[in-house]
Amino acid sequence: MTTNGGFQPVFCTIVPPHVLDKLARAEDPALSGPARRSLEHDAFQRTKRRLTTVIGAPAVAPPAGADADQPHRTIYDARHTQDLPGTKVREEGSEPGSDATVNRAYAGLGATFELYLKAYGRHSIDDNGMPLDATVHFGEGYDNAFWNGEQMVFGDGDNEIFLDFTIPVDVIGHELTHGVTQYTANLDYHGQSGALNESLSDVFGSLIKQYTLGQTASEADWLIGAGLLAPRVTGTALRSMKAPGTAYDDDVLGKDPQPATMDDYVRTGRDNGGVHINSGIPNHAFYLAATALGGYAWEKAGQIWYDVLTGGELKEDALFTDFATLTVKATRERHGAGDELEAVQKAWEQVGVRTL
């Protein structure tokens, strides 16, 4: 269950719908075909997720006698179908095989489990040792990765715009963090609460990458999905927390639409009220706070954000102001009225979000 009671019927993908919509209108069928199929896949999975929420999903418990301090990973191969979970190809403790995608998915699940355990004492997604399942090679040239409320799913990409979705570990961490949010604050996936939902996944996805690489806040690139874009694309990643709106500027994809401050907040009815777009604002606030605090970002800034996510006070329909105010409160409780508090307050001030 969640702190706020009940699950929202959320289907969360790493590539925003507005990106696939633009690709689907491309004249080149090598670009438009995979994008259209990906949108169709997403629509089907989104409907399936809603139905699962209505009828109830089976409870997922850790294996009997399992060590809660160890992950319990299973990787499946869909073999380019949409059938989930697919054929089991690797399980916890087994040696790497010849499929690099399988191995990356296995490692990424482990990296996510480790960050949450070592940094925050959390035992898997639900804090109760939930097994981590993932399916690779989903669909034909599928241009996305998603968390469906029960497991991770990765496409291979079309090799024109997107490469294999297991390549960036932060993509894996991002999607699994939607599961953490599902089991904690359960943020509505619309408007500002939806943008916070997306931002929290970017925050912890980035922290998982930084933890894996042993990087400080100043050493990190603060990019989400670096290595995912194919060579023909003019861009570095899907999103930039350091400089929202600069991740790509491509003749096919268009320009990264993310704002960095409330001055450029985007009001739209698409993408559940722009959840993948306006997430740039809280993303940038976290970047500013983390770099001002210095050191390893998961230790201070990440702990504050985790305190808010799991503390029970964050409402399902929270606005940016609500979240920012809770981060100030959490900072004061952990660090008192010192430099840390000033850094967090200033970060929100710089992006134009009021704290109460």
Plain-language structure description:
With 356 residues, the chain is of the alpha+beta class. The chain contains ten helices and ten strands. A six-stranded mixed β-sheet has the order 1-5-6-4-2-3, covered by helices on one side. Strands 7-8 form a two-stranded antiparallel sheet. It is globular.
Task: Write the topology of this structure.
Blueprint: E1 12-13, H1 17-24, H2 29-55, E2 73-77, E3 87-91, H3 100-120, E4 132-136, E5 145-147, E6 152-154, H4 169-183, H5 191-213, E7 223-224, E8 239-240, E9 249-250, E10 254-255, H6 271-274, H7 280-293, H8 301-310, H9 320-335, H10 339-350
Parallel strand pairs: 2-4, 4-6
Antiparallel strand pairs: 1-5, 2-3, 5-6, 7-8, 9-10
Helix pairs in contact: 1-2, 3-4, 4-5, 5-7, 7-10, 8-9, 9-10
Q: Structural class, from helix and strand content?
A: alpha+beta
**Radius of gyration in whole Å, from Cα?**
19 Å
Total number of helices: 10
The number of strands is 10
Low-confidence stretches: 1-7, 51-57
In one word, what is the shape?
A: globular
Question: What can be said about the biggest beta sheet?
Answer: 6 strands, mixed
Strand portion: 5-15%
Quote the distance from N terminus to C terminus: 30 Å
The chain-level mean pLDDT equals: 91
Q: Give the SSE string.
A: EHHEEHEEEHHEEEEHHHHH
Q: If strands are numbered along the chain, what order do they take across the biggest sheet?
A: 1-5-6-4-2-3
Helix content: 40-55%
